[in-house]
Design brief:
The protein is an alpha/beta fold. Helices cover 29% and strands 32% of the residues. It folds into 2 domains: 56 residues, Roll (Spermidine Synthase, Chain: A, domain 2), CATH 2.30.140; 227 residues, Rossmann fold. The chain has a 7-stranded mixed beta sheet. Bound molecules: S-adenosylmethionine. S-adenosylmethionine binds next to strand 6, strand 7, strand 8 and helix 5.
């Protein structure tokens, strides 16, 4: 392995006062779409990586930790998983995970950036693993904001796999009270809405708490869960919302029975993992219990 000074580095500015460095093995793509800057690189530790607007989106060697967490607890708890909607999800890995369940009849994925989808197909085919060609997949290149306003259907599971709502990110307008209301209107009875919900590190959990506080105005059960994701070099949080089910109370045996029906093997998620990711540390529970800002 070459010494440190011989590497080129991808530096993710996580916060103005926190940087994460990854050695670059190869640059597959570096450019800009109409919506954001896009990088596809490979690193010795995490394999290939997708970077949007300087923010790591997912990495080859650990993306299953993120995508199985995002998709399967919600799918396991939903009353009906035949029709699923994904907002964002450009790499196709969220789509891949949804389509592993035989109950799924249709999975609609709406991503604003056709370049992310095309580059992912070209350089990151391991992420989608054929999901884009599955006849149950309906892939729409368009703004999720517009889709939610125009689409009349209701879905048993809605998954938000959008970029972080940074100031000039195309996902930013989707993080507001009215859109949370529109999403609720698209959810079928007994349905679950789950979102990737920013970091849950003890030093930077305020955005996550703000999302949870806003969503509590809409759903009976708003439950945070989290796990460490090496590519993000942080604890990553998700929020599951439902009027019908509190996912933190899902029995281990129910989760395992759900997982047994999935095509292929899980890497990360099962009944034991479910218990662990829904068991929140005291500092996070305290933060979530506090009153504070909403969207
Ligand atoms: N795991 C990721 C993370 O860490 O933020 C999210 C993954 S995925 C690559 C995010 C996707 O959201 C991108 O492909 C981006 O194009 C899409 N996106 C952002 N804003 C959007 C919008 N308004 N409508 C639809 N898709 C959007």
């Amino acid at each position: 392995m070459p010494k440190t000074e011989h590497w080129q580095w991808y530096v993710e500015e996580f916060f103005p006062t926190e940087q994460h460095h990854h050695a670059i093995e190869q640059v597959y793509y570096a450019g800009r779409s109409q919506f954001q800057s896009i990088g596809v690189i490979s690193t010795p530790v995490l394999g290939k990586m997708l970077i949007l607007d300087g923010d790591t989106q997912s990495a080859q060697h650990d993306e299953k930790i993120y995508h199985e967490s995002l998709v399967h607890p919600a799918m396991a708890g939903a009353a009906d998983r035949s029709d699923v909607l994904i907002l964002g999800g450009g790499e196709g890995a969220t789509l891949r995970e949804v389509l592993r369940h035989p109950d799924v009849r249709r999975c609609t994925m709406v991503d604003i950036d056709g370049d992310v989808v095309d580059l992912s197909k070209r350089y990151l085919p391991e992420w989608s693993a054929g999901a884009f060609d599955d006849p149950r997949a309906r892939v729409i290149v368009g703004d999720a904001l517009k889709f939610l306003a125009d689409d009349p259907d209701r879905y048993g599971v809605i998954i938000s796999d959008l970029t972080e709502p940074l100031e000039d990110s195309p996902s930013n307008p989707l993080f507001c009270d009215e859109v949370f209301r529109d999403i609720k209107a698209r959810l079928a009875d007994g349905g679950v809405y789950v979102l990737q919900a920013s970091t849950a590190g003890f030093h930077n959990m305020s955005l996550h708490a703000k999302m949870a506080r806003t969503l509590r105005g809409y759903y009976k059960h708003v439950v945070s869960f989290y796990t460490h994701v090496p590519a993000f070099d942080n604890d990553w949080a998700f929020i599951a919302c439902s009027d019908a089910v509190d996912l933190s109370r899902l029995e281990e045996s129910v989760v395992n029975a759900y997982c047994d029906k999935l095509k292929g093997e899980n890497f990360f998620y099962d009944g034991t993992t479910h218990r662990r990711i829904f068991a929140l540390p005291l500092y996070l529970r305290r933060e979530l219990a506090k009153a504070g800002e909403t969207f």
